[in-house]
Amino acid sequence: MTTQQQDMAQAPADVHSFAKPAEAVARHLDLDIAVNFDKKTISGKATYQIENLAKGNRIVFDTRGLNIEQVYLGEEQTPTTFRLGDEAKFLGRPLEVDIKPDTRLVTIQYNTTANADALQWLSPQQTAGKKHPFLFTQSQAILARTWIPIQDSPGIRITYSAKVKVPKELLAVMSAENPMQKNSTGEYTFEMRQAIPSYLMALSVGDLVFKPIGQQTGIYAEPATIDAAVYEFAEMDKMLVAAEKLYGKYRWDRYDLLVLPPSFPFGGMENPRLTFVTPTVLAKDRSLTSLIAHELAHSWSGNLVTNGTWDDFWLNEGFTVYFERRIMEELYGKEYADMLNVLGFQDLQNTLEELGPDSEDTRLKLDLEGRDPDEGLTDIAYEKGNFFLQNIERAVGRECFDQFVNKYFQTFAFQSTNTDLFLDFLRSELIKGDEKLAEQINIEGWVYSPGLPVGFQKPTSSRFAQVEQAYTSWKSGKPAAQLNTKEWSSHEWLHFIRMLPEQMSEQQLAELDKAFGFTNSGNSEVLAAWFIHTIRNNYTTADQALETFLTNVGRRKFLVPIYKALAATPEGKKKALAIYAKAKPNYHAVSTSTLDAMLK
Predict the structure, then answer these.
(1) Do both 425 and 470 map to the same domain?
(2) Which of 55, 362, 374, 397 lies at a C-alpha separation of 20 to 30 Å from 204?
(3) pLDDT tens for residues 413-450?
(4) Residue 569: CB partners within 8 Å, gap ≥ 6?
């Protein structure tokens, strides 16, 4: 057995992929595709350089809803036989290709179908510019297989190159080395020299322009959005410098952002070299840019060192939230990072309440067999993961912990890891047999037990203490307009809104609205939190703003709690269904799969 075969054999089986990497594994992809907006399809060829480790006669790829036309072997493109296995829920169908022991190249000719959940096709009306259609992909967790036949497991990494043909008036960009302006042919080529897992395969096509921020950083957006985005993200360079200072050199050459239309289901997606980001962070005051720090941090945790299976998702996200808060502390001070920690803890409490404190899904190490891995994308991975790492930092000291994290990123760079591997590394590099330290770090309590460990220290914030004082004054009868809120950031406003009582009178809501303009806020975080109160208390003044928000914004983080609040009463559910019927075409499948189940 070669070392690679041993590595593949020892890696935990990925229950969300049909691929058998210990037998035959893809190493490099040459993609040659055309994007057809009229038919809403992508068609072309995916050519893989493979390693037939077992010298066997098959290689297995993941597909879901793809039309496989033909498969060829070798440079001479000799047709070979292939089979699509039975459909499995969430997973799609395995594509088994017959190969020879010495096969090095496999070419799959295919096209996508209407079931390609990774692809979001937007009409001109759904874009900022309203003139041209738009396409973007969202491959995480296991949707890459809906637009490319691929070994769709985070434990398998490939390098890739691509040729993409698009309408001449549009620009194509990928998670790779990108063009900075349109050409006259509509044909673009891409190169990704660093090996990445399949969920980081990304493509977007639209009426895009590029503007630089620094030497290594810049922004792609629609012409109507570019200037606002350049202003909002002006501190990207500083973030990159702060990140490198903490955890070593950025390993992906450039760090650019693509600002997507509002239907994007996530805050951001850390596609290497080109983070996809929601326009809901364009608050005009740079107050929501911790999201960019988060996506940038993924360049180390997630992209450089990747969770080997979706059961280990906390390794991607817990590290990233921890690192994001460290970047924000480096740039804006400890008091700022403390606010983010408190808001994160509030989100975590909500998730624990929702899932139930004894739910197995509140453990860091998950068991998602037979389920959609998207079910693991909760605040447990993000916030419980972050607080576990903060707990280790407290136990060993920041300097020692930073050395450990640096060594972790260097040791596992461009590889996949898993919970067991990480914990072995933690024991050998940090705990080193020290029983008292092992007790403080409490692996069992954090990683394998539900809820939060006994003795968990809740985060606090001095800036929020002042918000709490203002809130108490208001509750005691001080008019809202007289509260001292002049210096408040988005985070302080969010904390204030989250503190408001569940039951409020029309008069109280109107007073707050008049003093602070919540219903007409340009800040999506503030709006989404405020709408929960307006829905609960039937404050109809906000109804139009609520409908506008829900029909324009596709970010799942906002949609789910708002629709849930609406669906809590028969009258609200009626309203929710009416809005959803209008808004659903603007949402990505990642959002609609959750909302369909909630509103049925």
Answers:
(1) no
(2) 374
(3) 999 999 999 999 999 999 999 999 999 999 999 999 99
(4) none
Separation in Å, CA 371 to CA 197, 311, 363, 367, 416: 21, 11, 16, 9, 22
Q: Are residues 36 and 182 in the same domain?
A: yes
How deeply is 435 buried, as exposed, middle or buried, from its count of CB atoms within 10 A (0-12, 13-18, 19+)? Answer: exposed
- Radius of gyration of the chain, Cα coordinates, nearest whole angstrom: 24
User: 276 lies in a domain?
Assistant: no
The domain boundary, picked from 417, 448, 479, lies at 448
Q: Among residues 295, 324, 329, 383, which one is catalytic?
A: 295
Active site residue 382: yes
Secondary structure element (H or E) that encloses residue 218, with its range: strand 217-221
pLDDT bin (cut points 50, 70, 90) of residue 9 is very low
Same domain flag for 199 and 329: no
Tell me which H or E stretch contains 551.
helix 543-552
How many structural domains does the chain have? 3
Torsion of CA 147, 148, 154, 160, to 10 degrees: -130
Please tell me which residue in 382, 408, 471, 563 is annotated as part of the active site: 382
> Is residue 195 in a domain?
yes
Rounded Cα–Cα distance for residues 60 and 213 (Å): 43
Q: Where are the beta strands (DSSP E) in 74-186?
A: 78-80, 82-84, 93-98, 105-111, 119-122, 134-137, 157-165, 171-174
Opening angle at CA 42, ends 41 and 43, nearest 5: 115
Are 158 and 198 in contact by the 8 Å Cβ rule? The answer is yes
Domain boundary among 149, 177, 203: 203
Residue 225: HSE in the Cβ half-sphere, 13 Å Cα cutoff: 28
- Answer yes or no: 324 catalytic: no
Any idea what DSSP says for residue 567?
T
Smallest Cα–Cα separation from 61: which of 32, 36, 29, 35?
A: 29
Helix (H, G, I), strand (E, B) or coil at 471: helix
Place of tokens 């909630």: 598
pLDDT digits (tens, 9 = 90+) for 72-129: 999 999 999 999 999 999 999 999 999 999 999 999 999 999 989 999 999 998 898 9
Question: Token match 């297989």: residue?
Answer: 145
Integer CA distances (angstroms), 309 to 361, 366, 411, in order: 15, 10, 19
Same domain for 328 and 444, yes or no, is: yes
Same domain, 506 and 590: yes
**Distance from C-alpha of 271 to C-alpha of 55, rounded to nearest angstrom:** 33
Q: Which domain holds residue 349?
A: 305-448
Q: Tell me, what CATH number does 549's domain have?
A: 1.25.40.320
Asked if 283 and 232 count as a contact pair (C-beta separation under 8 A), the reply is: yes
Same domain, yes or no: 52 and 88: yes
Identify the burial level of 200 via C-beta atoms within 10 angstroms of its C-beta, where 0-12 means exposed, 13-18 middle and 19 or more buried: buried
- CATH no. for residue 436? 1.10.390.10
Q: Which two tokens stand for residue 166?
A: 């698009």
